[in-house]
Design goal:
single chain, 81 residues, mainly beta, 5-stranded antiparallel sheet
C-alpha cells in the first residue's frame, strides 16, 4: 500500500466505456511522487489516503474489466507513532 494525500481532481470530458463512474484524484505520496487514483470512497482535497496499485486495484471491479491501475482503498483518520 502507498500512503499519500489528495492534492487535486482530474477531470476528463471523454473516457472509455469500461471506466466506472467515480472520481479520479491526484495523490501525492509520502515520497513526493504524484499519481492519479480512482476514488470509490468520496475523498476530499487534503485528505490522507491509502492507495493500492496494479492487479489488486483492477480486481476491485468484479462486474467489469476496468482500466484502473491505482485505487484509493482507505481514508486515514489518524496515526499513532
Amino acid at each position: 500500500m502507498i500512503r499519500g494525500r489528495v492534492t487535486g481532481r482530474v477531470w476528463s470530458s471523454k473516457a472509455i466505456e469500461t471506466l466506472p463512474g467515480g472520481a479520479l484524484l491526484e495523490v501525492t505520496t509520502e515520497g513526493g511522487a504524484s499519481l492519479v487514483a480512482f476514488d470509490p470512497l468520496g475523498c476530499a482535497q487534503g485528505e490522507a489516503v491509502l492507495v493500492t496499485q496494479g492487479s489488486v486495484a483492477a480486481a476491485y471491479f468484479t462486474k467489469i474489466k476496468a482500466p484502473v491501475d491505482a485505487l484509493i482503498i482507505g481514508s486515514i483518520d489518524e496515526t499513532q507513532e
